[in-house]
Structure formats: structure tokens, C-alpha cells
């Protein structure tokens, strides 16, 4: 949603959708969306299949946890289908690069802080 606001304000600033600058902004927003979508799916998979420990109490599943870890992906999927966004194979490079940099940063941070 934020990408849409940034993109539309940038289009207005640049004066239309036929410019080279608009195309660059649109491509950057598309790559950013694809990286965010892949990370949102990764967070859901890690949280619910690795970190989440079922409680014997059926009421222990909090609404906040559901909203934080499931609704994000639901909104991304809805946005993906409603806006008919293209899937670009080259964007996989950016997704992997982000994952590698994040994993390295997390490893270094854990090494120094123990958190």
C-alpha cells in the first residue's frame, strides 16, 4: 500500500507515465514488492512451522499473533491478484541478495550480542 502512494506521488512529480524516470521508479517499486512478498511468506513459514509451539490451551493463540503473521501475506496475495503484477525472474537475484545480507547481519549481531 505504501508503495502505491509513493509511486503515484512520484508519477505526479515526474509529470506522467511516459518518461524514463517513471519507468525506473515503477521497476524499483516492482522489485521492492517482490522482495517484500518473498520475505512475508518466509516469515509466515518460519513462525508457524518452526517457532510456534502449540499450547494445550486452545485460547492461547492470540489475535495479535495471527494478524502479524498471516494477514500480511493475505494482503500481499490479494494485492498481487487485484493489480495483476508481473513476475520477473531477474528479481529472484534481489530476493536472494537480501536474504543473504540479512542472514549475515543476524549472524554477526548474534555473535556480538548473544541475542
> Approximately what portion of the residues adopt beta-strand conformation?
under 5%
Task: Give the tally of structural domains.
Answer: 1
Question: How would you sum up the major sheet?
Answer: none
What's the overall geometry? Answer: extended
Q: Rounded to an integer, what's the Rg over CA atoms?
A: 18 Å
Enumerate the spans where pLDDT stays under 50 for 5 or more consecutive residues.
none
- Tally the helices: what do you get? 4
Structural class: mainly alpha
Give helix and strand order, one letter per element, not per position.
HHHH
Q: What can you tell me about this protein's structure?
A:
- The chain is mainly α and 115 residues long.
- The chain has one domain (31-113).
- It has helices spanning 2-14, 20-51, 63-82, 91-113.
- Helix 1 (2-14) runs antiparallel to helix 2, helix 2 (20-51) runs antiparallel to helix 3 and helix 2 (20-51) crosses helix 4.
- The protein is extended and about 60 Å long.
What is the gist of this entry?
The protein is an all-alpha fold. It has four helices and no strands.
Describe how the helices and strands are arranged.
Elements: H1 2-14, H2 20-51, H3 63-82, H4 91-113
Helix pairs in contact: 1-2, 2-3, 2-4
Task: For the structure shown, list the relevant keywords.
extended, mainly alpha, 115 residues
